[in-house]
Amino acid sequence: MADVPxxxxxxxxxEEKWKKLVPNLEPPxxxxxxxxxxxxxxxxxxxxxxxxxxxxxxxxxxxxxxxxVILPATTxxxxxLPGHVATIAELKPGIFSVHDGNEVSKYFVSSGFAxxxxxxxxxxxxxxAVPVEHIDPELVQKxxxxxxxxxxxxTTDLAKAEAxxxxxxxxxxxxxxxx
Amino acid sequence: xxxxxRNRMKSVKNIQKITKAMKMVAASKLRSAQVxxxxxxxxxxxxxxxxxxxxxxxxxxxxxxxxxxxxxxxGGINSTSVKFSKALxxxxxxxxxxxxxxxxxxxxxxxxxxxxxKDIELTIAEVQxxxxxxxxxxxxxxxxxxxxxxxALRIVFNKFRSVVQFIPTVTTVxxxxxxxxxxxxxxxxxxxDSYETEGAETKGEILQNLAEFQFSCVLYSxxxxxxxxxxxxxMSAMDSSSRNAxxxxxxxxxxxxxxxxxxxxxxxxxxxxxxxxxTG
Amino acid sequence: MASNAAAPFxxxxxxxxxxxxxICASLVRGCLKEPHKTEALTREKVHFSFTQWKSGKPExxxxxxxxxx
Lengths: 179, 280, 69
Hints:
The complex is a heterotrimer.
Chain A: H1 12-21, E1 49-55, E2 58-66, E3 68-73, E4 76-80, E5 87-91, E6 94-100, E7 103-109, E8 112-116, E9 121-126, E10 129-131, H2 137-153, H3 157-178
Parallel strand pairs in A: 1-9
Antiparallel strand pairs in A: 1-2, 3-4, 3-6, 5-8, 6-7, 7-10, 8-9
Chain B: H1 2-40, H2 45-51, E1 61-67, H3 77-92, E2 98-104, H4 106-116, E3 120-125, H5 134-147, E4 152-162, E5 165-174, H6 176-184, E6 196-198, H7 203-279
Parallel strand pairs in B: 1-2, 1-4, 2-3
Antiparallel strand pairs in B: 4-5
Chain C: H1 9-12, H2 17-29, H3 36-41, E1 47-54, E2 57-58, E3 62-65
Antiparallel strand pairs in C: 1-2, 1-3
Subcellular location (chain C): Mitochondrion inner membrane
Organism (chain C): Acorus gramineus
Pfam family, one (chain C): ATP-synt_Eps
């Protein structure tokens, strides 16, 4: 991702149009003016990956420097090291792990996206993420059985889809517990 | 005259009690809203880092999402949202173009209904019955997606900077087709093409999912910021009101005392002149 | 470049990514041990009223309450 120069925090086309049509009102701010610009793509591969891991209700990891992360991409486990090619990855329910030296942190994410930028900053955005230890194996088994039944009795496309999601999520939770 | 002043003092004292109580309620709600807002500030940044923000994008179908409160007594923040929404409407209008409003909050609706009825597509209310959470706002975003056609969404809200400072802000969210159009033509989204996509679907599918997810995350952030601004503004409004009431009370007390002294003096004069008439 | 070739099953059934991801999140929250489960469920309360407008007039409002979709 190209660097965001300080001037790009303001969209000059927009400001000019605004000043012409709405001269008595200062133009509104846009999100870029509230964000610190991202680092430029370095010429050499950096030694560490910088990870941001955010949920709607908190920033779990903020600019943490690590060796590697493994994402639960819809195509399977995807390892990300510094220098990884810029990628937009859609995530499926599964384990997201963060590796630094001998430390490994694991989270079960419900779904979301990960952006691996060319500057070795990786943003992971999930709707829900829980430590694996917080998952109740009994509830997982119960849920899996419930949805396996539901998919057989489902008549509409929507009900079938909901049941399939139930199976996928509970299977993933199950795998996470037994991994 | 006496009892009129006394009654007035009673009602001003009551107003002062109420505004002080409302200020305390707003203050405690504000504390928890602030925490939630600060915790959510990481959420929109990855999307801005990846997709930037293109308020000057030229598209046919614009939808302005005006975020306002249901309740009043919160200073000028709703007028601000409406003012900026109308300005955006002016800027995005043109031949062959269409700009509609989706209004969140009763107060915004009441103002926009005055001159812009025909452009209202959806109105949403009762959003803060429970404290705002992501699921709630995501379901609202989902309803908007399913009921409104758009090339660009422009979310107008008051960003919370401090209890006395709220910043009018616009976040622009593009439809997946426009994201693709902009990334192909170079310009601000030109870098997007350099990203590979990793997913079981086509790149187009992934971008659609991404654009939808961006909308719910960004709308949630905006709703929280505005709710925080609403509480801050209400706290300030209640604070001014109760201080005002305090000043009125002081003035009334002076009047009351002067009136009381005047009547005592009058009585004394009557007694003395009566007595002197007797002894006189 | 956009192709509808590989629409996932939930998209084909009329869901958006938002509905899909909300359902996933809700299912995960439902499998948590206490007290995490109770705490997580506070993130799911939904209530709002929704009114479609046509030609400057509001239609009948609908209330959406406490369902996650």
